[in-house]
Amino acid sequence: MAHTNSLLSHTLPNEQQQQLNPFSLEGKLALVTGGGTGIGLEIARCMATAGATVVITGRREEVLQEAVAELGKSVHYLTNDICELDQLDGLVEHIEATYGPLDILVNNAGVNMKKPALEVTDQEFNRIIHTNLNAVFALTRACAKRMVERESGVILMISSMAAYYGIDRVVAYAASKSAVEGMVKVLASEFSKHNVRVNAIAPGFIETEMSRTAMNSDPDRRDRAMRRTPMGKFGQPQDIGHAAVFMASDAARYITGASLPVDGGNSIGF
C-alpha cells in the first residue's frame, strides 16, 4: 500500500505534492551563489535532492563543471563574479529566460580574512564589505523585484557566528555579516506582504576543506571553538544544506525575518 501511495505521489501536480510533503522543493527553481564548493555545493545538492532545479554560480568554470557533473541533470551552472554589480540584473534576466522564474535565492558566496583589526587596510575592509554585503544586496534586489511582482519567493542569506559574538581578527567579515543580519530584518518587513520571505542561516563551525586548513593552522582557535560547542563536534556542510531546504520549503512558510543558527549550540555555549 505504501508503495502505491509513493507511485501516486509522483503523478500529482507540484502544489499537491508539496501539500503531501511540505519539505519538498519539487518544481522550484533555486539560484545558489558560490555553489561549486563547500557549503554552497551541499546546499545545491540538498535542494536538488528535494526536487528543485538549481543554478549554481561562481568565478571558476572548471569547478562549476565538476560540481554539475557530480550533482546531476537538475543542476546547471553559470560563471559569474558577484562583485561585478552591473552584471547582476543581466544574470537574473538570463536565468529566468533560460530556466523560468526564480523561486529561491541563496546568497552563499562570500570571502573572509583573518587579520588583527589594527592591521586591516581600508582597501581590504572595503573588499570584504563589497563582496559580502554590497553584492549580496544588489543580487537580492535584482531577484526580489521579480519575486515581489509575482507575489512569491524565498531569499536566504548566509550569516555567521561572527555576527552573533565577538571573534577576534575578523573585523571586516563580522561587520559584513552583522549588516546582513540587519538587512534580513528590513527586507522581511518590506517584502513579507508580497509573500516573499527573507531569512538567514548562521553556520557554526562547519568542516570544509577551507575551514580545516584554517583551523589546523591555528590550533588554539580550533580548540576554543570546540570547547564552546555543546554538541562537542563540528558540523558538516550538509547540515547547512538541510537547513536551507527547510527554510526554502513550505514547511517554513510562516518564518520570515529570522536568523537560524546551525551550530551545535555554539552560539549559546560557554
Structural key phrases:
270 residues, alpha/beta, Rossmann fold, seven-stranded parallel β-sheet, disordered N terminus
Secondary structure layout:
Elements: H1 2-9, H2 14-20, E1 29-33, H3 38-49, E2 53-58, H4 61-71, E3 75-79, H5 88-99, E4 104-107, H6 122-150, E5 153-158, H7 171-191, E6 196-203, H8 209-216, H9 219-227, H10 237-248, E7 259-262
Parallel strand pairs: 1-2, 1-4, 2-3, 4-5, 5-6, 6-7
Helix pairs in contact: 3-10, 6-7
Organism: Hymenobacter telluris
Pfam families: adh_short_C2
Enzyme class: oxidoreductase
Structural commentary:
The protein has 270 residues and is α/β, with parallel strands linked by helices. It has a single domain (25-208, 237-263), classed as Rossmann fold (3-Layer(aba) Sandwich). The protein has helices at 2-9, 14-20, 38-49, 61-71, 88-99, 122-150, 171-191, 209-216, 219-227, 237-248; strands at residues 29-33, 53-58, 75-79, 104-107, 153-158, 196-203, 259-262. It has a seven-stranded parallel sheet with strand order 3-2-1-4-5-6-7, sandwiched between helices. Helix 7 links the parallel strand 5 (153-158) and strand 6 (196-203). Helix 6 runs parallel beside helix 7 (171-191).
Q: What sequence of helices (H) and strands (E) makes up the elements?
A: HHEHEHEHEHEHEHHHE
* Overall mean pLDDT: 93
Beta-strand percent range? 5-15%
* Arrangement of strands in the largest sheet: 3-2-1-4-5-6-7
**What's the total count of β strands?**
7
* Tally of individual helices: 10
Rg on CA atoms, Å: 19 Å
The description of the largest β-sheet is: 7 strands, parallel
Given this structure, which CATH class is correct? Alpha Beta
| Overall shape | globular
Cα separation of the termini:
50 Å
Low-confidence stretches: 1-11
Q: How does CATH name the architecture?
A: 3-Layer(aba) Sandwich
Number of separate domains: 1
**CATH H-level superfamily title:** NAD(P)-binding Rossmann-like Domain
Helical percentage? 40-55%
InterPro entries: KR_dom (IPR057326), NAD(P)-bd_dom_sf (IPR036291), Sc_DH/Rdtase_CS (IPR020904), SDR_fam (IPR002347)
EC number: 1.1.1.47
GO molecular function: glucose 1-dehydrogenase [NAD(P)+] activity
Domain Ketoreductase: 28-204
